[in-house]
Amino acid sequence: MTNDSSGAGFEVYPQALRQATEHIFAARDKVMKFANDDLSSMVLHDEDVGLLGVQSHIVEVFNNVIASMQNKSRRGAEKLDSFAAAVDKAADYYETQDEEDYRRLRDKEKGMN
């Protein structure tokens, strides 16, 4: 697809957008695995830190940090999901444009304008 409406031509390859979408979804899956699997096993208990750790509330602080990282990772994964959907939608748009351009050229060749 070539677009010269702004004077600066560019080409869009819908298949390249589809491949990018797959990579974005793969990144989303890795972030979700990090949030749901990798971080979920990182939990401290009072018996893990000793008396000073208990008195300093380090267990609560540590577990809150892990929970915050999980929430931020999940939100990041949601953003990646939305981004991938937008890229996929762009690929659909450019495929449609390519099909319309092809039909116009075919009709022009047949003298149908």
Structural account:
The protein is mostly helical. It is 77% helix and 4% strand. The protein is built from three helices and two strands, in the order E-E-H-H-H. The protein has helices at 14-38, 46-55, 58-109; strands spanning 2-3, 10-11. It has a two-stranded antiparallel ribbon with strand order 1-2. Helix 1 packs antiparallel against helix 3. The longest helix is centred in the C-terminal third of the chain and has 52 residues, at 58-109. The radius of gyration is 25 Å and the shape is rod-shaped. It starts with a strand and ends with a helix. Residues 1-7 have low confidence and may be disordered.
Entry keywords:
2 strands, single chain, 77% helix, mainly alpha, two-stranded antiparallel sheet, 113 residues
In short:
With 113 residues, this protein is mostly helical. It contains three helices and two strands.
Describe the secondary-structure layout.
Blueprint lengths: L1 E2 L6 E2 L2 H25 L7 H10 L2 H52 L4
Antiparallel strand pairs: 1-2
Helix pairs in contact: 1-3
Task: Give the rounded overall mean pLDDT.
Answer: 87
Could you tell me the radius of gyration in angstroms?
25 Å
Output the strand order for the largest sheet. Answer: 1-2
* Apparent shape: rod-shaped
First and last CA, distance: 20 Å
